[in-house]
Amino acid sequence: MTKSNYSAALLSDFGNFVLQDRNAVIMWESFDEPTDTLLPKMKIGVNVKTGKKRNLISWKGEDDPSFGSFAVGLTPETAPQLFTWNGSSPYWRSGQWDKTKFIGIPGMEGRGSNLQQDNIQGTTYYSLDNYNNYFFAYDFISSEGYFMAVRWVNEWGTYWEAPAPTNPCDIYGYCGPFGVCNLLNSPMCKCLKGFKPRSDEEWNRGNWTRGCLRKMELNCQKSANAAASTTVKKDMFWQLSQIKLPDFADFILIDDANGCQSWCLENCSCLAFSFVNAIGCMAWSKDLLDIQQFSMDGEDLYIRFADAGAGADGGVDADTAGIFICGLSKWRGKFRKMTIPGLFRSVATAIRSDKLLKETAWKEQMKEDDASKLVAYDFDSICLATDNFDAENKLGQGGFGPVYKGKLKDGKEIAAKRLSSSSGQGLTEFKNEILLISKLQHRNLVRLLGCCTEREEKILVYEYLPNKSLDAFLFDSKEKAKLSWSVRFHIIQGVARGLLYLHHDSGLRVIHRDLKVSNILLDEKMNPKISDFGLARMFEGSQVMVNTHRVVGTHGYMSPEYVMGGTISEKSDVYSFGVLLLEIISSKKNTSSDYPEQHLNLMAYAWHLWCGGRGLDLMDEAIADAFSTSEVMRCIQLALLCTQDHATDRPNMSAVVLMLNGESKLSQPKQSAYTFQSLLARKVQSQEGIRSMNNITITMVEGR
């Protein structure tokens, strides 16, 4: 193709869409106009000389891409900070940059964050580095104001989020001026030493935003007004450790901690100081705002006060906040029945739970319905039931966190799923699972008994199923022989009935969104039960499909329209069910790379065998001696129908159940272009000797 004399458009491997003139000079690039997502090599920040700001702007809603009210940007101060603003009001801040990390984000090391400040150009920019594709990650601001770091580790997951849904202290100025927030304290807000609540009445009601005021005038202020012959004591400094330092710091050109303290002591306007090795001396002359005490990381902050006895009562304990350890407390045996709304109100950190309940009419209906009640277990009872979450009782690990076997005082066996601090899931998924599964009752769905929300814990308590999950049998070379064809077909039918109930018969129309073998649990009679509803989505009224900006799920089970366009419907679960069928038949993982003849995945291999009239070769050799040929061939054909490229070509679960039972005729499946194109791309790469972790292509669009 002859190159245009005028312009060209180029899409880079990093996702930057660039317009160039005929001399390859960049005229415009998409990375200069950020939306709600920060990709590696993109920059957000500010140029103080031109006044130009590059901020991330949230969507108005999850399904509405117009500009929302939240923005993420960078301040140009000497130690820059990331901010999330709600309109023009600060909503969250990162703390100061110390040349490797933001010190107000505990455990931030290793995130691949970069910050470049050029005082001559007047620019301050923040960016991500994926270390030459060593890992894949991006930052994202949600329509609800959550600034999230998302990373690919076998699947996309949020590994950091601010403000953390479980930590109100992350919200800017939560305890007001001269107040400090500690999630482990009760109440969470306390006044700094030498200060008292501005309004006792508001403070006692839990309204802390107006903060605190000084009890006693500083000695340096007295000295300025005292007669020359009067001796006035010097002020003192009170040390707070593991602190998110306040906003509005002034940078002082002093290079040691003693000099920093002396400077502050000699300047009566200095209310506090901190010396951070990688930053230097910082001092505060304005209200100390947005202070948080961490249980790890953080810096030392020195607060100025009049004398050692001032405000000793009610002040913050200077000792480092301890890490809570589950102890063998005395069995209290307390539990009580709660409605779902009552349960959420008991979670001190769920400050936005009512918003979740009020978002739509169906949630209001659930809120008013007292028919569904859960047991709210106290934390001590769960500790004792699981032997303090002993590793010997660990049943497995999911996206939410570890699952432990336990036995309650009455002898009832339970499975306790405890949210992990490193989990990619959080409060939203926790509430979602409670809201949905507590309203669903079916023999092929796992039964939720209750939950625990004491001491900032989030634990779901389920019925205990002795045979654990399907993958423990299916992908184990010894255990899979226990799954005869009759047992496998029984499991397939049970999962199909469970999905049919979710989609049509429950009255709630639920899309699971994460159907996979590890989420199929087995009871003592090998009856299957669908579990893990943290990512489930409920449809309202006559809704058929919906678009979601955040694609979540498990690689290999997600439908093409969901992966590429974020569109979910009942047919998304049907696609996952088709993949599940093939895995149950073959005892092979769809994402495995050891299929013969360079087949990309299990679906491509199954299609190859089906077209060659060798469908039965897909059968697991461990049970190849005893099975129903007609049932196996019917299941393979149905699996190929369920995994068709276009959602309209897939049957719904009503038709699937009829086909499984032989009560409905199966149509012929079409070849999957989605799988075939991926397979073709792999073959081309192999032939050309291309070895790359990143298969993103570069597209040139020539101008006329």
Protein described:
22% of the residues lie in helices and 26% in strands. It is of the alpha+beta class and 704 residues long. It folds into four domains: 34-165, Agglutinin, subunit A (Orthogonal Prism); 176-221 and 233-305, Hepatocyte Growth Factor, CATH 3.50.4; 335-463, Phosphorylase Kinase, domain 1 (2-Layer Sandwich), CATH 3.30.200.20; 487-682, Transferase(Phosphotransferase) domain 1 (Transferase(Phosphotransferase), domain 1), CATH 1.10.510. The longest helix has 21 residues, at 485-505. The chain starts with 6 loop residues before the first strand and ends with a strand. Mean pLDDT is 79; it is low at 308-372 and 676-704.
